[in-house]
Amino acid sequence: MTLREKITAKIEGLIPKGTDVSLSVPENDTQGHYSTNVAFKLAKQKGVSPMEEAEKLASKLLESASPKTVAKRLFGQAELFERVEAVTPGFLNMWLSQNALASELQIILKEKKNYGIVKSKKKKKIQVEYISANPTGPLTLANGRGGFFGDALSNILEAAGNAVEREYYVNDTGNQILTFGKSIIASLGIIPTEEEFYKGEYVREWAKKNKSFVLKHKNNPMEIGKRAAKDFLRGTRNTIEKGAHIKFDRYTSEDRNIHKKGYVKKALAVFKKGGRVYEQDGAVWLRTKDFGDDKDRVLVKQGGEPTYFLADAGHYLETKERKFDAKINILGPDHYGYVARIQAVAKIFGLDSRVIVTQTIRLVSDGKETKMSKRKGKFITFEELISEVGRDAARFFFLMTTPESHMDFDLKLAKERSQKNPVFYIQYALVRALSILKKSKIKTSAKASLDALQTDVDTKLIRELARFPEVIADSAKDYKIHPITKYASELAKAFHNFYEKERVAGEAKNIAQARAVLVSASIIVFQNLFKILGISAPKKM
RNA sequence: GCCCCUGUAGCACAAUGGAUCGUGCAGGGCUCUUCUAAGGCCUUGAUGUAGGUUCGAUUCCUACCGGGGGCACCA
Fold first, then answer.
1. How confident is the model at residue A277 (pLDDT cuts 50, 70, 90)?
2. Is residue A301 part of a domain?
3. What is the spatial distance, in angstroms and rounded to an integer, between the CA atom of A463 and the C1' atom of B29?
4. A506 belongs to a structural domain
5. φ/ψ of residue A120, rounded to 5
6. What percent of chain A has a predicted confidence (pLDDT) above 70?
7. Could you write out the DSSP letters of every residue in A395-430?
8. What is the three-state SS of A334-372?
């Protein structure tokens, strides 16, 4: 039970059932360690003044604590609050007791790497799909953004007690691969180029490197496209896994896992059986309008060929049949138009589905916009970003923002700023913590008395540590990552402040031992935090 | 034209309908005899415009003015 849950439970016990109690952590300590606006809600229900309600609640909270206090003290525990105050116009501010805070440290020491992790009895099986870039070239920054987001989101959902599969869906067949193959042939001047061909430098490079293969199969562009796609996917996997430390459990092949396993036909059969399709102009359409889409969508083209959309439907059916409770799909902004139709499909299959659309990254250079285009080959690749600014800096930089923010990105500035990236500030805090324990040579004992942790700086650090499970829980609920990066900065700030203001080595024994516990707990939380964010936990810098 | 996202300080970003709008970078000033100064402390500076709802609006609603993206039998 987190501190927040303990407080919430206490308040809920004093008010009518069904009233939502929400707690906030004020930035200013004079407004309490935790604060609630529940008095406003109660006042509205009863038609009285919020201040009156807040005052009543404040005295009740203190009363409810006191009868048990004596008994609790006998067992070495004290009450939750040190102080509760009602403040105009009706806020209820609460300060935790030193004992309540200190006991949280013992929990951290006991749970170690499980601190902040929810042990769920009924795990939900969730598939998270991200990146899924076409294997027709290098990864873009937008791919990278989605990749970092998906990776961290998967970590968070796992921490919240779910079983997560991280999936990369590879479109390794169909029209795009055909076009890709043709583009390669055209890049050698064998056939004339066309508007929709891929024209990046990487296309020509691959063609040159594989010239004999291209010449041999110049009448079979699909073959060439598939071969090139395989090569690019290998490069992509290398960038993602080794370069960016983005993990995947499964690379699902559209060709092998979906088409060849019959899921495309199966999906169509389900649609037909459910009366969701009709024929028009020689094509087969799905009634996605029934589910809020702008228009109905084609499943089978005039020539009898399935659309990508139908293949994607097959993919969703596969996910459903593999017994997932939910699927989260993280798409780039260029796929926005796709959301309504794929959600329609999910609904038809009865798959709990959520689509998160990340917004564009606008590439700027010296204040001017540079257009990114994969087909024209004008873009900064994800790989370049990682090698220029480093993986931890790149990851943190992207995770700091909400997915729906439109970022302006300047590689030159990013390089300049990579040295000043907040991620180093946070990692440095861990390094300092490790250093303290190493230099002071004090053994951390879980049984050490923590009464000596009395200064505001000590208390502030404990409070930040105790927020960790709360932040993780909130993020999992909202599918948001950036609050965690913000929390990481705040925790690091509290630690650096502690480092400057208080000492461990050289203090009286009881203080040194208590602070050693505090430092150990900090190390545990930093390490758990870094694991979830996917950044490295350095031992020295 | 229709749909989605978005407008906060010089820059990049935060803010479950809550209190004096936060953080980093940049700018100005202080700070290493002490567990790593990649640190600490102080400081300058912002909600696109006009209405509305509310005890309370950066947040919700309307209009306007900007920015990005999407509107294929491509994905």
1. very high
2. no
3. 32
4. yes
5. -95, 135
6. 95
7. HHHHHTS-TTS-EEE-HHHHHHHHTT-HHHHHHHHH
8. HHHHHHHHHHHHHHHHCCEEEEEECCCEEEEECCEEECC
Answer with the one of A80, A96, A112 that is the final residue of a domain.
A96
My answer on whether omega of the bond before A483 falls inside 30° of 0, hence cis, is no
Token readout for A467 is: 């927020």
CA A355 → C1' B59, Å?
23
The CA distance from A79 to A122, in Å, is: 33
Contacts with A184 (C-beta within 8 Å, 6 or more apart), sequence order = A203, A206, A207, A214, A221, A224, A225, A228
Output the six-digit token pair for A202.
């990487």
Query: Domain for residue A92, yes or no?
Result: yes
Asked if the Cβ of residue A308 lies within 7 A of any atom of strand B, the reply is yes
Q: What is the CATH number of the domain that holds A47?
A: 3.30.1360.70
| Cβ atoms of A411 and A380 closer than 8 Å | yes
The domain boundary, picked from A77, A96, A115, lies at: A96
Beta carbons of A35 and A84 less than 8 angstroms apart: no
Number of residues assigned to chain A: 541
- The number of folded domains in chain A is 2
CA A347, A348, A350, A355 torsion-angle sign = negative
Query: In angstroms, rounded to a whole number, what is the distance separating the alpha carbons of residues A206 and A204?
Result: 5
- Its ipTM equals 0.94
CA–C1' A166–B21 (A): 38
Please give the Cα distance from A435 to A516 (Å, whole number).
11
pLDDT band at residue A236 under the 50/70/90 scheme: very high
Whole-number mean pLDDT of chain A? 90
Q: Is residue A16's beta carbon less than 7 angstroms from any atom in nucleic acid strand B?
A: no
Q: What span, in angstroms and rounded, lies between the C-alpha atoms of A319 and A341?
A: 17
Range of the domain at A441: 422-533
